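In the lab's daily routine, each protein ends up as an entry in a very long ledger. A line of letters takes care of the sequence, but it says nothing directly about the fold. The three-dimensional part falls to structure tokens, numbers that each stand for a local backbone shape. The outcome of that step, for a single protein, is printed below.
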Amino acid sequence: MNKIDCKFLPDEDLSETQIFVTTQTYDRFAKEFAERWEWNPKTIKEIKKYNIKPFVKYAKRSGSVLLVSCQSGRDYSLLSKAGFSCLGVGFSYGLLTEAVKRVPHGLFVHFSLRSLPFMPESFDAVYADALMHIPKKDIKEVLRDFMIFLKPGGVVYLSLRVGKGNVLVMGDLGGKRYITLFRKIEILEMVGSAGFKVVWSESSPHTDPSLPGWFSLVAKKM
């Protein structure tokens, strides 16, 4: 794999302009993103280990799952095969189009991830992998929404990028993608303040070890 064009920015947080540019990049290069980062065998192997396995361990068997930031449908496909009833939500029409092509049986909808319209206690679990394009200032509110959407005893799977600084910009697809970076302690504090109890967590490297890695967790609504 060629060296990735990326750099850390001095920005305090992700801006609305950066979110717009990122969405445009996904819309234009959805197929390239899916093939390079989502559906290649190495990534799928890591996702099964760090995402699907811990989620399945704690989530209700055959339960209803809201996939927030479903991207091109990879994790939707894996969770459906594991017996879960899934609804995928995405912010990029390009990625959702790719998801429909790759997972034709799937149910996918387009919403802003910061203003999801679901009713209280609608899902047994929320699966939120790679929430990397939401500003830090909005993450706490998003987590509170997850708490509302979950049934009593439900779980949330969450993974965020960790690293120095607050914003990373990547130019790997033909357009720029701006990514929010967190510190592990920030993530744990936000999850706790939303009322969740963490039952599992783990740090893992990025598929490309030169890039900032991930911190993933499963937390329970008590």
The chain is about 35% helix and 25% strand. Residues 41-58 form the longest helix (18 residues).
